[in-house]
Amino acid sequence: MMAGFMSYFGGRRDTKQSTRDAIVTLRQQLQMIEKKEEHIQKKIEAERATAKANAIANKTLATAALKRKKVAELELDRLQGTKFQLETQVSTLESASFNAETMAAMKKAAGALKDIHRGLSIEDVDKTVAEIQDQMKDADEVAEAISSTNYSSVDIDADDLQRELEDMEREQLDDVLAAADHAPVHLPGAPKTVPQQVVEEDEEEELRKLQAEIAL
Q1: Distance (Å, rounded) from C-alpha 124 to C-alpha 134?
Q2: Over 90: is that where the pLDDT of 79 sits?
Q3: What Pfam families does the record tag this protein with (predicted)?
Q4: Rounded distance, CA 84 to CA 92, Å?
């Protein structure tokens, strides 16, 4: 490992450039992943809206939409796992590059000190290098401890789909009831004209009264 760091700042500019190129490539890939994440998130929202809209009228269509939503969610999880791995690689490369530059500065300073202090003990230098190597080893062990996210094949729980479908059915019913509560109520108005039958009955009643008065 030490030889690798020495070659990094030992006049081989191609190593520095390749490190920079790798970091740029990783960051470009991360941008692509973020765009894909946004696309998948919109797809998930669209499938959920479809499932909710058909939770009562067309349960077959609603169930199919929920399945597509689940698959999209798993794809989003896998994509986020990949994104995490790339971010880890970028961080590792940047850290390694920083450490190499630090080592270069230390080497230069060590040379200057050697010229000034010829009597500097080599044991002290070895101890410093050994401590740095131990720290680098610890950093490598931490990076290796980060496990990759592995996903098995898509396994959709039918009971989970049914529960989510029932929840959406209740949501749609609540929306319908809420809309009904706010609907205006139109009551029939009072009749503006008197029915013909009522008029005729009134005339007959008045005629009977007149006949009764004449009889008297």
Answers
A1: 15
A2: yes
A3: Snf7
A4: 12
